[in-house]
Amino acid sequence: MKSTFKIIGMTLMVALLATGGTFGQQLPQFSQYIFNGLHINPGYAGYKGEPYIQSTYRTQWIRFPGSPETFTVTADLSANEGTMGFGVSILSDNIGPARTNSGLLTYAYRIQTGARGFLGLGVSAGVSEYMIDGSLLDPNDYPDSEIPMGRINLFTPNLNSGLFYHTDKFYAGFSVYNMIGKKSLEREDVALAYHDFHYYLTAGALFDLGNMVKFKPSFLIKEVKGAPTNYDLNAMFLFGERIWLGGSYRSNMKIWNDNLEDNLSNRNAFAAIVEIFATDRLRIGYAYDHNLNILQDYRSNSHELSIGFYMIPRRAVMKNQRWF
Q1: How do residues 114-157 score in pLDDT, each as one tens digit?
Q2: Are 20 and 61 in contact (CB under 8 A)?
Q3: Is 274 helix (H, G, I), strand (E, B) or coil?
Q4: Residue 204's closest CA among 37, 319, 58, 89?
Q5: CA 173 from chain center: how many Å?
Q6: Fewest CB within 10 A of the end CB: N or C in the chain?
Q7: In sequence order, which residues have a C-beta less than 8 Å from that of residue 318 and are 6 or more positions away?
């Protein structure tokens, strides 16, 4: 029994670390959040100014039994001449016998702070389900009282908040996730999470490199108690207002005393990212993550595919392009 749970625990730990930024050992990670800020900030809702729906699928350790898989569907729109934003997020995250499902409703209010500046104040609320399926575990000694005979489900509420400021050439955001719900977890071993506060700080800018090329550098810092501070450094190029090409470097650093030491080296992962406006309504994205630490020789690379659809045709030329 002990060896069984030791193997499961090691598998989950390596799976979380190999994602290249653990999100506090709980929240799933995405490489294409730079095109859909609703994944990390409720204040982003309605930013695009047009009804938009996107589905993202991320898989890691291809052909490895029990490898992490994450699927999301997000939708957002703006109303009242862009001063209000609404969003919906549905997520399913699977790691071996454990599954997390969640649903969120988002509201954001946008304030004009200057001729081209806007500040969005957003909040999202919903519920998460944590499940473990004992039938997928194979104990050394059967029966084992520590392994459930079937599925165990736990539910907890979620509340997140965020600020998102943007102009036509710059954006910055700060958000806090998991503001409530921790005390409602009866068994953290089933939830496979601490449900602590998660903090996100991000910013980016857009530069013209000619009539046909734009350059968008950005960064994201992720912080949660008990895990190293994670950061992403991103560089994306837009060609002809149709094709995004670029990459992301993901690593971590120890800042606070309660951060865990990172024994897998500070180098973490690199992601190659491409997104294409296939039509005026359809955009398709793909990211390939490659680990740069000691896990690089194992099946620890990731693939992420996203498909987004504008409910009305995307305008190729706008006074304030929604490139963020």
Answers
A1: 888 999 999 999 998 888 776 666 666 566 556 666 677 788 88
A2: no
A3: strand
A4: 37
A5: 14
A6: N
A7: none
| 61 DSSP assignment | S
| pLDDT average, residue stretch 12-28 | 44
Q: What angle do CA 259, 218, 105 make, to 5 degrees?
A: 75
**DSSP secondary structure letters along 111-138:** EE-SSS-EEEEEEEEEEEEEEEEGGG--
pLDDT digits (tens, 9 = 90+) for 89-113: 999 998 878 888 999 999 999 999 9
Global pTM value: 0.83
Q: What is the pLDDT of residues 25-83, one digit of tens each?
A: 467 888 899 889 999 999 999 998 889 999 999 987 676 677 788 999 999 999 888 89
Is the Cβ–Cβ distance between 271 and 251 less than 8 Å? no
Give the torsion sign (CA, 109, 205, 287, 270).
Answer: negative
pLDDT band at 323 (very low <50, low <70, confident <90, very high): confident
Q: What DSSP element (H or E) covers 172?
A: strand 170-177
Tokens of residue 39, six digits: 């994944």
Report the DSSP pairing between strands 98-112 and 84-95.
Answer: antiparallel
Query: All domains of the chain, ordered by start, with CATH?
Result: 2-310 (2.40.160.40)
- At 166 the three-state DSSP class reads strand
Residues in the chain, total: 324
The residues, ordered by sequence, that sit 6+ positions from 246 with a Cβ below 8 Å of its Cβ are 216, 234, 235, 236, 237, 273
